[in-house]
Amino acid sequence: MMRLVAIPLLLSLGACDDPSMHRQNRYETYGKARLFPDDAEARTPPAGTVSQSALARETALADPPPVDAALLERGRQRYEAICTPCHGYTGHGDGMIVQRGFPPPPSFHEDRLRAAPATYFVDVITKGYGVMYAYAARVEPRDRWAIAAYIRALQLSQGAHVADVPGLAEKLP
Amino acid sequence: MVQIFRPGADTIARIVLFAIPTVPVLAVGFAYSLWHSPYATAQDVTREQPVPFSHEHHVGGLGIDCRYCHTSVEKAAFAGLPPTQTCMSCHSQIWTNAPMLAPVRASLAEDRPIEWQRVHNLPGYVYFNHSVHVAKGVGCTTCHGPVQTMKLIRQAAPLTMGWCLDCHRNPAPSLRPHEAVFDVDWQPPENQAEVGARLAKERHIASPQRLSECSICHR
């Protein structure tokens, strides 16, 4: 009888390490991992690895989505979150980081960039240009097209004429 | 006859009698307040970091959006900690010789991540997902506090279960329009109760009963 009670009690002592289960024996995102030589839970894929989503991403990059209000809205959100520090809210290349000393990027409203095809902007976001780092890891392929579409909207907004908007001339003082 | 008790014995007896019921009550009260205090919850504790990154400067001063660095906050459980390349997107050109940034440059040169000290540490038995909170309209500062004023990041909320439940039982006061989720200066409008209730309905936020079930957070 005594043994029946004592053995499970002794076995349960093994769990006394952390009875609250506050720290569990698993790896946290970006945590330390003793298993690997660099102590990092986040692993770098071995050279030559192709991710399962690579084909979908390539396709999304090669195939521009149809431009609609939702895409432009998405582009505005991404542009304002990712691009404004340098390119500024209106795309003149006068963002806050430029005001603090970063080399100014060209304005989206110069003739060369007004004439550039949308793929040019998508390529620059993907690969970087000059002192601009590549943003492929930070901006999804579809979002790159959305940003390119929004840049077009910015170009339109900064070069618009009163006559372009029906009925606007009458409303102006 | 010899006196057994000295004259002060009466006082001692009274104190002991008084202490027998009061000390256990005070002890429990003390333990409870300690358990909820910053000492136990790590609330408002700043930690020494390899680089003294200032949210006050980058968010408050420069106005950089949360998502510039925390790129996975809208689509994953983990908000995402920026790789060194994100720091160097700007610091390859500005403050290039700042001694403060030496660990960042070393990290890029040696291809070795910077080892930040974790500030928000949930227990292992808690499941938390950033993306669903963002998608339903809970803003960053609702839980993380005014990060735009923090020179070093600290845990603004107690992160206790009671604190989580406060909102799960009554989400309406914390719900924002989608465009305001990342706005660190957002203040609730006058009619927040009304707006919050409407947003909760539009976004199909589950009932307080459902949101306070154990399996919502303990999976």
TrEMBL record, chain B:
The keyword Transmembrane helix applies. InterPro entries: Multihaem_cyt_sf (IPR036280). The keyword Transmembrane helix applies. The chain crosses the membrane at residues 12-35. Keywords: Membrane, Transmembrane, Transmembrane helix. This is Cytochrome c. It comes from Methylobacterium gnaphalii. The lineage of its organism: Bacteria, Pseudomonadati, Pseudomonadota, Alphaproteobacteria, Hyphomicrobiales.
